[in-house]
Structures
1.
Amino acid sequence: MFWKNVQRKYALTDHGVKNIQKGTLWTVIVNLVVICGMGILYKLMSGFMDTLTKGSPLPSLLLFIGVTALFLVISYTVHLQQYRATYGLVYGEVKDVRIGLAERLRRLPLGYFGKHDLADLTETLMGDVNRLEHVWSHCLSYLYGSAISTAIIAAGMLAYDWRMALACLWGVPVAFGLLFGSRKVYKKRSEENKKSAVRVADGIQETLENIREIRATNQENRFLEELNEKIDRNEKIMRKGELTIGIFVNLASVIMRLGVATTILTGTSLILGGKVDFMVLFMFLLAITRIYAPFDQALALIAEMFVSQVSANRLQEVHDTPTAEGTEVFMPKGHDIEFRNVSFAYDNQEVLSGVSFTAKEGEVTALVGPSGSGKSTCARVAARLWDVDKGSVLVGGVDISGVDPEVLLSDYSMVFQDVVLFDDTVMENIRLGKYGATDEEVLAAAKAANCDEFVEKLPNGYATPIGENGAKLSGGERQRISIARALLKDAPIVLLDEATASLDVENETKVQGALSRLLTGKTVLVIAHRMRTVEAADKIVVLADGKVAEEGSPAELLKKEDGLFRRMTKLQSAGAEWSI
Ligand SMILES: Nc1ncnc2c1ncn2[C@@H]1O[C@H](COP(=O)(O)OP(=O)(O)OP(=O)(O)O)[C@@H](O)[C@H]1O
């Protein structure tokens, strides 16, 4: 129960908590071995005292050298074991926790990423894990081990002389009580600290990502001033936090050290009263240094332990968020996509409400409607990138909310307007469409998507790296890579979001040819802003305010006198005649 709590509280893996247990055990052994060393010293001293006071023969030096040498060997061995169990094993834990987090993030529904920005998640993966690593390696085992060994030593001391034991030990519970009592203050400071650090990271990321727009609008100074302000505020919050922690930790350390003074005072008065001899005081003074040493180390880090709670909670939040799970068996009867009374909301803001329509296999179904009417949301929901709130989406009669997203998505090809590319070569970016595709397959898909024309001009052809998110390519070139990916994947369902919008007329005509090859016999859901894109569609679903306003073939809808589709088509043809 105790260890389960520790595991959850400090976001440890099963393996990690076992390492902490091991580290605790070795810390107990180390502390007890060191106290035995004190015993050897005490024995030597009392031998000398007896020689001085009672005239006993000098203790055998050879025996003491032998015992000390043995002690050193044992001490070295147990310290090494403790080091391995605390520092050594923790590095494996860091790796496991990061991999576990990344795996979890991979399986989370997209909605989660809408609520957390990139800087925040990067901070969790890197900063929070780093902070916890320090606590796992430097604090937990030391603190728990010291608590156990002190309890054992304290029991021995109390049995030997309870007055001296109390004089020695009273500072430990008081100091730790003070620190535990002030935990809330640390937590508050550290939450403030974390928020302001994420705000700085956000500000830097936003400025770098939007540097083009910032320069184009001459807003550099304003952005820099805002960033400076965030950095200044963060520094002030950090200083305030450090000061608060420093005050409590130093106060606790002073209280604990007062134990030395009370031991000397009590020991002296007991010696004067003839109740104990000097060697008892000497023994307790030796013991006290050993009890304080590990706690001193823990004291310096205990604040970090409390502060790390905020990081652990952030990690735990990722682990507690339900992942998009489902069965790995997906055997639909055909690939019709059926929306049954689907409602969906982003952050309680309903965007789709009671949407019902069917996109048939072998047909092109176009989603049209005013901006913000919910077309892209429909496409995302159709691929389970988000889960619906009410109703259901069926593919070939199977409710997709019960299918593992990875398995489901192997049946989808997607070409969206905002193409995502990786900092790799053209070849590898296309190969992403189909895991393990041969070079020949990749080149055939690239050719069909009309990529040859721009790739020939690149210094290393298909082996040319294209920069972060394809920064070295034009919008049309990026989109052709995305179409090549979809062609390579050749999945039975194709989602297109204005796939040819960034192409010039000549390229659009060429790519349309490739697209028609891709679309033959598939279930195609096209999101179209330009009405001429959907002239050849088999069916049109018109969305307005998240509801289906009209449905039918283009010809049927054009006949509707006061229809939305007819009005939009008319408006766009009027727009086409207008020019600067
Ligand atoms: N990630 C998100 N979080 C919150 N709200 C969102 C998110 N994505 C879209 N919305 C909102 O949902 C509504 C529908 O957006 P959606 O992108 O589906 O519309 P659309 O019809 O595709 O628009 P457009 O034609 O302009 O691309 C809009 O009001 C939009 O502001």
Note: DSSP finds 20 helices and ten strands in the chain.
2.
Amino acid sequence: MFSRQVKQFLKRSSSTLWPYLQRNYGAPSRQAKVTNDFVSSLKSIVGDKNVSTADAVREQHGHDESHHEIGLPDVVVFAESVQHVSEVSKLCNDNVVSLIPFGSGTGLEGGVNALEGGVCLDVTKMDEIIEVNAEDFDCTVRPGVMRIGLNNYLRDTGLFFPIDPGADASVCGMCATSASGTNAVRYGTMRENVLNLEVVLPDGRVIDTAGKGRRTKKTSAGYNLTNLFVGSEGTLGTITKATVRLYGVPEKTISAVCHFNSVQEAVDTVVQVLQCGIPMAKLEFLDDVAIEAFNKFSKFDMTVAQSLFLEFHGPALGLEDQFNTVKELIDMNNGFGLKTAIEADERNKLWKARHEMVWACCSLIPGSKPYSTDVCVPISHLPDVIVKTKEMIKEANVIGPIVGHVGDGNFHVFFPVDHADTETFKKVYDISHRMALLAMDRNGTCTGEHGIGMGKRDLLIRELGEEGVEAMRQVKKTFDPNGIMNPGKVFC
Ligand SMILES: Cc1cc2c(cc1C)N(C[C@H](O)[C@H](O)[C@H](O)COP(=O)(O)OP(=O)(O)OC[C@H]1O[C@@H](n3cnc4c(N)ncnc43)[C@H](O)[C@@H]1O)c1[nH]c(=O)[nH]c(=O)c1N2
Ligand SMILES: CC(C)CC(=O)C(=O)O
Ligand SMILES: [Mn+2]
């Protein structure tokens, strides 16, 4: 019933983890049929140099940045063109061999881990920025284009692509996970920013989800196929081109930090800022434990308290007024220690350190690796859910700094865990699971931005209900009747 890698993993795991592992890995597995002949056929499509069965290459492609156990693909294929992707997909489909698209491996829910072996399809060599339409505020990229590289390329155009997960991820991988980050409160997530996708279906057909070459801000033309593939986590097809929205680089940017004595006061401030209609670019929460890690790792000297990191974007005219209104709201909620960063160097230092929080948290326990969580609730429930989460962390006696895209009601705990310490691993798993249940109990979701992957499949059922997940399974069957695309992900 279980594949070789999973069996090995189960053998190594502590018996205390067994119940949840059994549930997570309980999906029926199929035997991958990667024979020598099959590998030769792959080589005849993409060339010898683009096919690797070397252990190091398979290992590099068998995991992402999450705590999930590695799942080795049998073979890694590097595609250089849409035709490569199409022919490799058709070959896998005809032979019922699993196919796992690989972007840049920065995912946090085990999305690229090959649970049943098969072919890992690395698309990083397809790295062309096809076009930038500056007047239309959009651009079209191949799947190897990374978000930071895209923004460097755009520098002279006065435009930028705002979606900023902490890692430098591929833009198409970000489509696949429906990523977001610190700018989502102003600019939205990938869902709001993708205009069109070219997708290679498992049988090799190529579709454009909004029609070939279309890149309008609006459309009422039929079903929203584009958003069906946003967040599909490689389970429906391989994204080979994405057209995404761009924005003008703001004339002026002000970053700021302030502190509070309670989570409630910090979140009340956020709600009031949003109620005043102030178009904040970033509204990030860091709890006292996170600030301690932040100070230690990034050499800051911030007051250790519940804190908000803020950013304002806009024309110079009026931005100071926005800042002053927010300052008043901070004062009204007993906030203190407000400091601004206006020069680019200072701002970049602050946000770079925020993006590096995961590594800062690991520095709290030498030898640890991150175990991250991701829940999202309607903002009115946020203080209660954060406070209850802090109680769970305290009760379990583990270290768990909290960081949140609080303007969106989305937050994470970064648990630094030594993975050999199964007792702590289990405690952390329990807290994450209970956090997800708590969030769902408050009309929230078990994942705001990291996706379901292999880690949250049982939670998806609880979130959507059996009927909802069954409707998703039917969509999956329509596009992928042989079930070759990234098996064992999203669905149990
Ligand atoms: C330090 C740090 C910080 C953050 C994050 C990671 C890390 C390491 N992330 C998570 C991560 O960066 C995000 O999920 C990216 O969208 C993953 O993009 P990759 O290209 O790395 O996809 P990766 O290669 O990891 O693949 C992820 C999933 O997408 C599929 N996929 C990839 N490319 C595909 C393609 N071309 N076609 C079809 N399927 C494809 C894969 O099969 C897999 O299921 C995050 N996220 C977030 O939303 N907000 C955040 O703040 C952060 N912060
Ligand atoms: C490791 C993750 C929790 C990273 C993330 O999503 C973030 O820093 O916002
Ligand atoms: Mn995040």
Note: The pocket of 2-OXO-4-methylpentanoic acid (ligand 2) is lined by residues 108, 166, 357-358, 370, 372, 403, 412, 414 (CB under 6 Å).
